Amino acid sequence: QVQLVESGGGLVQAGGSLRLSCEAYGFTIVTYTMRWFRQVPGKSREWDATITPITTAGTTTHYADFVKGRFTISRDNGKDTVYLQMNNLEPEDTAVYFCHAQREATYGGEGTQVTVSS
Q1: Residue 21 has pLDDT above 90, yes or no
Q2: Residue 82 burial by Cβ neighbours in a 10 Å radius (0-12, 13-18, 19+)
Q3: % of the chain residues with pLDDT over 90
């Protein structure tokens, strides 16, 4: 069964850090572009970060302006896992975080809740 499973969310104080993980089951992420999104109830899903497949030229990362300098996306193809290191968290970062794997098809997970207290 193809699925993505996010983990690592929790409750943290403002200024703190969390590392989210997204592990793929039933497929390998090697050739997939991986993304992290967030969603707050009643609002549209927002994109946070993207990491491209690793090629001979390396990999490329992209970030939404509101997470640049605070969040880092990375991938471990050997573990079929993508990470989102989140530092200097703000209450506005409170959301459910989802990862997506995109190639011809797109796969998504159930999300992990991140709550940042002020």
Answers
A1: yes
A2: buried
A3: 97
Cβ–Cβ < 8 Å for 100, 34: yes
User: Token match 């940042």: residue?
Assistant: 116
Quick one: 90 exposed, middle or buried, by C-beta within 10 A (0-12, 13-18, 19+)? middle
27-60 per-position pLDDT tens digit: 999 999 999 999 999 999 999 999 999 999 999 9
What token pair was written down for 102?
């995109």
Q: If you search the block for the tokens 């991938």, which residue do you land on? A: 75
Query: What is the C-alpha separation between 53 and 42, in angstroms, rounded?
Result: 32
